[in-house]
Amino acid sequence: MLCQFTDPQGHPTLKDYIDIPGVYSVGRLDYDSEGLLFLTDDSRLNHLLSEPKFKQPKTYWAQVEGKPDRTALIKLEKGVTIAGRQTLPAKVRLLPDEPKVWARTKPIRFRKNVPTAWLEIVICEGMNRQVRKMTAAVGHPCLRLVRVAIGPLKLGGLKPGEYAFIDKPRLN
After folding, report:
1. In the prediction, which pLDDT does 88 show?
2. Catalytic site residue 30?
3. Does residue 165 belong to any structural domain of this protein?
4. What is the pLDDT of residues 84-109, one digit of tens each?
5. 40-51 pLDDT, tens per residue?
6. What would the 3-class secondary structure string for 34-73 be?
7. Per the residue annotation, which of 16, 19, 30, 41 is the catalytic one?
8. What is the pTM of this model?
9. CATH number of the domain that 89 lies in?
10. 101 lies in a domain?
11. Which of 30, 135, 134 is nearest to 87 (CA)?
């Protein structure tokens, strides 16, 4: 679905799942990404969580083609150039096991002779399709991308289409 409440082209949107007036998403997920989407009616909180100058970390699990070696991980950590712009340093680690996530409704591209690996990537900015472009830049295209945290907010056990009301988070 699209991370907005209307779409003139008729794609599924947030309004198909959430009937709460006056809320807006903090940041967005691209159409092919999954995971945590935080909605709020507090414009100041939205600004603090989404504005890059406040450097709120966003944590993703990325399933990539191949198994990145140490060199690729270091490049991701130092930042890579995307469309002529250097990304800020990121925290990156190779996950030892496939994370426990829900089955995808739209399957990922699968090639029997190409292994995959899962990375945890924490960024503090939000360029368009940034994590996907970063992993591609080091030779490991992203097959599946799941956002699991925005600042102190964590996805936890929520599944697609589920939501929870929370108290206003404390930000660093």
Report:
1. 93
2. yes
3. no
4. 999 999 999 999 999 999 888 776 76
5. 889 888 888 888
6. EECCEEECCHHHHHHHHCHHHCCCEEEEEEEECCCCHHHH
7. 30
8. 0.90
9. 3.30.70.1560
10. yes
11. 134
